[in-house]
Design a protein that fits this description.
Length: 222
């Protein structure tokens, strides 16, 4: 969603075609899927499909190097489902978010200048001031959250807004609600019994030869 946002506001090389909706072309940019004779991410890393009840089943991320396809999608750069990283089907590590963003942008258009940084609730490098600054500058974030309040992180969300009322809230797109629905959650750190508490977050910026223009109907929620 973050990359799709930048594609829509002037960096149109990031996905093939329009990223206004999740088209088949956008799906290929997220995680490529082709065939056994011309493998993409799905064939090389998602198959054989494994689950948390298994040990990761070896895939093309294992040695020897060179028998896998050249990385060409977000999931490749995130090393999603890589058995060599102890990732089950669909799993990714949070430490790969910033490197994947930088590598994917560079792969799609080397004239774009991408930056990303990680911040944490535990050391206050992620705080309300940081969230407001990013949203006010039209830069959506990603948060890693504990959606169920059981004390364990379980979901990444795209953070697109904030609001200040009786409590401080962040607005996110979580992929679980309809695409047009923003979920509003209390901006607080993880704690047992508190749903949607925040572990940490990632900020992103993109500059380049194409001037960043934010259409009126694309302004982030405040």
């Amino acid at each position: 969603m973050i990359i799709g946002y930048y594609d829509l506001i002037g960096f149109s090389s990031l996905y093939k075609g329009s990223a206004a909706t999740q088209t088949s072309d956008v799906d290929q940019g997220i995680a490529s899927e082709r065939s056994a004779s011309d493998p993409g991410h799905y064939e090389d890393y998602s198959l054989p499909m494994d689950t948390y009840s298994d040990n990761p089943i070896p895939d093309k991320s294992e040695a020897p190097a060179g028998d896998e396809h050249t990385s060409d999608c977000v999931a490749d750069f995130m090393q999603t489902s890589f058995s060599s990283r102890d990732n089950f089907y669909g799993w990714s590590w949070s430490t790969d978010i910033s490197p994947a963003f930088l590598k994917y942008v560079q792969y799609k258009n080397s004239s774009y200048i991408a930056e990303s940084s990680t911040c944490y609730m535990s050391n206050n490098s992620l705080n309300w001031t940081v969230l407001k600054r990013e949203i006010d500058n039209n830069r959506p974030m990603v948060f890693l959250v504990d959606s169920s309040g059981n004390g364990y992180t379980d979901h990444f969300v795209a953070v697109v807004g904030y609001r200040e009322g009786t409590e401080l809230e962040y607005g996110c797109l979580d992929t679980w609600s309809p695409a047009s629905t923003v979920r509003w959650c209390t901006f607080t750190g993880m704690s047992s019994g508190h749903n949607w508490g925040v572990w940490g977050g990632w900020s992103f910026s993109l500059t380049g030869k194409t001037k960043l223009m934010v259409p009126q109907n694309m302004l982030l929620l405040q």
